[in-house]
C-alpha cells in the first residue's frame, strides 16, 4: 500500500491533471491512495469569497463565479463531451456552497471558513477521479469527511485517532485505486473541519498510519526537500536524505515542504516519506526515514515573514518568573497565537508569534495591563539549522537584528 499526495501546484490546470495521470502510469498505481489538494490557488480565492461574505456582499457572487469559471475551463479542456456527468457534479457543489452561504446563521469566521474552503478539494478530486476513469484508470472517490474525524477546533482541528482508525479500517478497499481530499475532516456533528493550511500532507500521513502503508510520496514542483526556499534564497540545494528527527525540526521551524504534523504518525510506524518532482517522477528526490543522517550536511535556511515580535518588561522592575510567564502563556493560548521563539531575562520577556487568528490587538490590550509592551509587526524570523558564520552573515547583512538566539545546532534571528 502506497500513499501519493498531489498539491495544488501539481493540478493547477488541465495539463497538471494529465501529468498526474502520467505519473501514475510511470510509477504504477496498484494498492495506491491519492490525496489531492484544491487546484492551483483555489483556497486563496475561497478566502476572498469569505472576505466578501462577511464584509462585501455585493462582490460575493462575483468571487464565486471566478472560481466556477476557473474550474469550468479545466473541465472543458479535459472532457470532450460537455454532457459528461462531471459537469453536473461540479455544478451541484457550487449549489451547495451558495446554499450554505445563504442559510448560515453563525457569525463565527472560523466555522464558516471550514464549511466553505473545503469545496476546493471536493471539486478537484471529483474532476480528477472522473478524468482518470475516462482514460482507463479506474478509481474509487472517497469523501474524506466520512473517514477522518476531528474535534471542532475549526481551521486547525485535532484528529480523533480512535474513530478515524476504526472508520478507515472498516471502509477502505485496498484492492482499487482510491482518491480523496487532503486538508479536510469532520467533527462529531458532521460539520466540515480543516487540519490547517498545507494540511493535505498530514492527511496522507493519517491514512498511511491507519493503513500501515509502505510509503508516502509527496509530489512537488521542486526536485525534493531543499536546504532553503528558492523564492527567498539563491542556490538552494537538494537534500538527498533526512532523518525523521531532522525533518521534524525543519518542519517545526517552518520549512514549507513538509507540514509540521505530517512526520509524527509516519515516525511512529517507521513509514518512509519521499518528496519527489512531478515533472521528473523517475528521479530519487528526498527520502525521510529512520536512522539516516542529513545528506549532504549543509546549513538549512527557513524564513517566516509577517511575524510579530512582542517584548515585555515589568512595570516595577520585578523579576519575570514562573507566575508571570504562566500568565503570559495563558493569554497566548487564549488568543490562539502560534509561538515561534521565546527569550527572557530577569526583567524582560520577548516572544515572536504568528498572528493567524488576527487577535493581536486584544492580546496587547491585556498585556499592557500588567507589563510595559513593545510590539514590532511585519518582522521576519530566520532559522538556520547547522549554521556557519557565513550562513549567519548571509541573513543578517542589510537588516536590523531585533532578537538572536543560538543553540548548538540552530540559530534564530528576528529582523526588521
UniProtKB/TrEMBL annotation:
UniProt KW Amino-acid biosynthesis keyword: yes
Record-level Gene Ontology MF annotations: aspartate kinase activity
Pfam families named in the record: AA_kinase
Protein name: Aspartokinase
Catalytic reactions of this protein: L-aspartate + ATP = 4-phospho-L-aspartate + ADP
Gene3D superfamilies according to UniProt: 3.30.70.260, Acetylglutamate kinase-like, Aspartokinase, catalytic domain
Upper lineage: Bacteria, Pseudomonadati, Bacteroidota, Flavobacteriia, Flavobacteriales
EC number in record: 2.7.2.4
InterPro entries: AceGlu_kinase-like_sf, ACT-like_dom_sf, Asp/Glu/Uridylate_kinase, Asp_kin_monofn, Asp_kinase, AsparK_Bifunc_asparK/hSer_DH
Record-stated family: Belongs to the aspartokinase family.
Pathway membership: Amino-acid biosynthesis; L-lysine biosynthesis via DAP pathway; (S)-tetrahydrodipicolinate from L-aspartate: step 1/4; Amino-acid biosynthesis; L-threonine biosynthesis; L-threonine from L-aspartate: step 1/5; Amino-acid biosynthesis; L-methionine biosynthesis via de novo pathway; L-homoserine from L-aspartate: step 1/3
Keywords carried by this UniProt record: Amino-acid biosynthesis, ATP-binding, Kinase, Nucleotide-binding, Transferase
Residue ranges occupied by any Aspartate/glutamate/uridylate kinase domain in the UniProt entry: 2-277
Tree of life domain: Bacteria
